């Protein structure tokens, strides 16, 4: 069975908050979750599973589970593994599927392919996570340009972190992508916090 809808969570960098956002989107859509390539521990799948509270979502095993916390191509090389994205097969589900990438769009998974090639292979719609910091406009626009150059469909942007209205508005105006959600700093990330953001995000998918 193929998923009913596919969303690929990617970001402008490694520490932008993809796993938290993946949990929020998974909870909002009561979707299944899959991280095809995991490099290092703890596993993001386990983290998302602890934050999602709905009874519907299923969590699928990684296609590649690497030991070293580094870019997938480097971890695979060190461990004698060859990552072949052409051999990736979607999990068996009829539910909406959230696919979490590794790092940013141009993180290499092999000598031939980048993370964003996984989204292209499965024709998944991208949700872009952007955190705001000094220099993040540049990183975000470079990512947006790469997505546009590759003709990757984008559902919208989720900002993660403190508000910066000038930066956010510039990014939205430039990209012409819709704003799906803004996740603000929280003292503690709990299933309740994730559920609260999920309720907000659900409205963006209904509209």
Automatic annotation (TrEMBL):
Belongs to the dethiobiotin synthetase family. The gene is bioD. It comes from Xanthocytophaga agilis. The keyword Metal-binding applies. This is ATP-dependent dethiobiotin synthetase BioD. It comes from the Bacteria. The active site is at residue 35. Its main location: cytoplasm. PANTHER family: DETHIOBIOTIN SYNTHETASE. ATP binds at residues 15-20, 44, 100-103, 186. GO terms for biological process: biotin biosynthetic process. It is an enzyme of class 6 (ligase). GO terms for molecular function: ATP binding; dethiobiotin synthase activity; magnesium ion binding. NCBIfam families: bioD. Its cofactor is Mg(2+).
């Amino acid at each position: 069975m193929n998923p009913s809808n596919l969303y690929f969570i990617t970001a402008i960098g490694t520490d932008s908050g993809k796993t938290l956002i993946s949990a929020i989107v998974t909870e909002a859509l009561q979707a299944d979750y899959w991280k095809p390539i995991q490099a290092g521990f703890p596993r993001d799948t386990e983290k998302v599973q602890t934050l999602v509270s709905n009874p519907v979502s299923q969590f699928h095993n990684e296609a590649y589970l690497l030991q070293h916390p580094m870019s997938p191509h480097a971890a695979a090389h060190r461990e004698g593994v060859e990552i072949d994205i052409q051999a990736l097969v979607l999990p068996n589900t009829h539910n909406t599927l959230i696919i979490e990438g590794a790092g940013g769009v141009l993180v290499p998974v092999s000598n031939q392919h980048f993370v964003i090639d996984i989204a292209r292979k499965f024709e998944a719609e991208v949700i872009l996570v952007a955190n705001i910091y000094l220099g993040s406009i540049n990183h975000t626009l470079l990512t947006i340009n790469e997505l546009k150059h590759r003709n990757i469909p984008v559902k919208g942007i989720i900002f993660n972190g403190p508000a910066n209205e000038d930066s956010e508005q510039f990014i939205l105006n430039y990209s012409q992508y819709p704003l799906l959600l803004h996740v603000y700093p929280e003292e503690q990330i709990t299933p309740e916090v994730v559920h609260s953001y999920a309720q907000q995000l659900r409205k963006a998918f209904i509209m």
